[in-house]
């Protein structure tokens, strides 16, 4: 009975439907994705050959009228969380102002405001809905009465969605650029100003986004090192760690950069970085105002036709992975600082992938797509007993994954061996998402 109703509810919302927006067209997005597949790095292209042209009219992102900046009213129940891109989108009405949206809201809003491609926005949105939300949508902050399951009673599932802020190890990860490690700060969603200062200092102005990204590698390594040397609970998981945490370093230069005739591929200024991260004041004396992430006025997003796709993002992940291979390895500290231990990829994947494999061919995508299904959805309430429920709840994601895997020629992953994580307290004390470690 339960399963039947659940299947009906899930059927009502297939993954393909989610990304089928008339405005841009899934087919178009797919073509862009295809054209980028296999390209190792955007840096490999000739800088002289401009990939895109600038068109002010279509790239302007409105910050007036319906899109004027309105900060959250926390007392009235608005929520904000670890993602500055979504926080700013909510403050400007590109996604619902209360911070709780449907899949369609997120896919459309991130495309409209930033030029995030439908494949990437769609995947991230489905992932959030399945693991941290109610299948139809999710909260960009913590749990809220606005994201109670419309389907809850119908489905007979009792777990409460915890939102992005409660998704530590599932979606939200340690070693983020500006957000602190959960164990160290008891908070994983607010800016730690010294970290922001470091990011600000590391950003080189007046060069194109590709060059800016390449120069962020030292900052990325320093953040990784900081977690190793200060956080005994540091855990770097296959999905939230290896695949999501790099987004914090690439997304700003790829999707918060302003575009112009001079920099058709974008160039992010320090001032724009401050605005998107809710920072005011002077360097050395920054002030952070929670929830005030803001899209700058007179700001131009990525060119239409040059949206930031899954292959584009993976090229950026590989770029840093090649320069510093530990970034692609799962591992963590074992309860003391400086005890970082790698998980053997072969053992974790039951022999399907071996160390070093992820740098080759489609392997990173093959691995990432398949390990993305390893977490437990909040709405199951921590009960993994009913495999039927789990399969059904994962369906929107497994359908999306199955569709993307077609044609990639991936070795098939038959689950992962989570016992490999037993030595990591950062995982053991928060195996399925959490918003805090017990003291
Ligand atoms: C549906 C779309 C999106 C989802 C579900 C999402 C979700 C998340 C999550 C869960 C995190 C925390 C990751 C971590 O702890 O390392 C995060 C961080 C981040 N996101 Fe998003 N995001 C989305 C779109 C965007 C967009 C469009 C941008 C940029 C315009 C963006 C920029 C960032 C940045 C810069 C961080 C790192 C924050 C920091 O620690 O400094 N995101 N996002
Ligand atoms: C997408 O968002 C824009 C602006 O936020 C809105 O005007 C448009 O109606 C939305 N489209 C869909 C299909 O939701
Ligand atoms: C890592 O951090 C330690 C302690 O802060 C420092 O001594 C070391 O130089 C750092 N290493 C790198 C590669 O940044
Ligand atoms: C973005 O670039 C345009 C030129 O295309 C410029 O007029 C505008 O001031 C810049 N916006 C910001 C926020 O820096």
Q: Summary?
A:
The protein is mostly helical and 439 residues long.
Can you characterise this structure?
- With 439 residues, the protein is mainly alpha-helical.
- It has one domain: Chloroperoxidase-like (Chloroperoxidase), CATH 1.10.489.
- Helix content is 39%, strand content 5%.
- The protein has helices spanning 2-11, 15-18, 26-36, 56-59, 84-91, 103-114, 118-131, 152-155, 182-185, 193-202, 209-214, 217-230, 240-244, 247-256, 270-276, 310-323, 345-348, 363-371, 387-405, 425-428; strands spanning 60-61, 100-102, 137-139, 235-236, 279-282, 285-288, 299-300, 331-332, 341-342.
- The strands form four sheets. It has a three-stranded antiparallel β-sheet with strand order 4-8-9. A two-stranded antiparallel ribbon has the order 1-7. Strands 2-3 form a two-stranded antiparallel sheet.
- A hairpin with an 8-residue loop joins strand 8 and strand 9.
- The N and C termini lie far apart (41 Å).
């Amino acid at each position: 009975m339960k399963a039947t109703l659940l299947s009906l509810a899930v059927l009502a919302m297939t993954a393909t439907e989610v990304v089928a927006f008339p405005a841009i067209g899934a087919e178009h997005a797919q073509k862009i994705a295809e054209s980028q597949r296999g390209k190792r790095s955007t840096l490999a292209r000739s800088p002289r050959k401009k990939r895109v042209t600038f068109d002010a009219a279509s790239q302007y992102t409105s910050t007036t009228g319906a899109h004027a900046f309105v900060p959250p009213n926390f007392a009235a129940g608005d929520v904000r969380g670890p993602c500055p891109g979504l926080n700013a989108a909510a403050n400007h009405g590109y996604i619902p102002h209360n911070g709780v949206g449907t899949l369609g809201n997120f896919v459309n809003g991130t495309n409209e405001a930033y030029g995030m491609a439908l494949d990437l926005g769609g995947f991230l949105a489905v992932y959030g809905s399945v693991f941290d939300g109610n299948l139809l949508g999710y909260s960009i902050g913590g749990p809220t009465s606005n994201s109670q399951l419309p389907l809850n009673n119908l489905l007979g599932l009792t777990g409460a969605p915890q939102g992005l802020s409660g998704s530590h190890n599932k979606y939200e990860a340690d070693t983020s650029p500006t957000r602190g490690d959960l164990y160290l700060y008891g908070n994983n969603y607010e800016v730690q100003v010294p970290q922001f200062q470091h990011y600000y200092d590391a950003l080189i102005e007046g060069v194109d986004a590709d060059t800016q990204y390449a120069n962020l590698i030292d900052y990325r390594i320093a953040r990784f090192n900081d977690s190793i040397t200060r956080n005994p609970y540091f855990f770097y998981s296959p999905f939230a760690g290896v695949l999501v945490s790099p987004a914090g370093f690439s997304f700003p230069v790829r999707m918060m950069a302003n575009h112009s005739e001079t920099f058709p591929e974008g160039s992010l200024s320090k001032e724009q970085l401050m605005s998107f991260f809710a920072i005011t004041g002077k360097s050395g004396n920054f002030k952070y105002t929670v929830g005030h992430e803001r899209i700058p006025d007179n700001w131009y997003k990525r060119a239409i036709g040059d949206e930031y796709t899954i292959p584009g993002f993976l090229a950026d992940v590989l770029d840093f992975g090649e320069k510093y291979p530990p970034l692609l390895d799962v591992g963590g500290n074992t309860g003391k600082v400086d005890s970082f231990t790698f998980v053997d990829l072969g053992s974790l994947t039951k022999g399907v992938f071996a160390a070093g494999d992820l740098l080759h061919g489609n392997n990173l995508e093959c691995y990432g797509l398949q390990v993305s299904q390893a977490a437990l959805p909040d709405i199951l309430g921590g009960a993994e007993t009913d495999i039927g429920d789990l399969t059904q709840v994962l369906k929107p994601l497994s359908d999306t994954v199955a569709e993307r895997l077609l044609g990639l020629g991936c070795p098939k992953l038959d689950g992962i061996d989570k016992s490999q994580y037993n030595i990591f307290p950062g995982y053991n004390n928060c195996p399925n998402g959490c918003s805090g470690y017990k003291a």
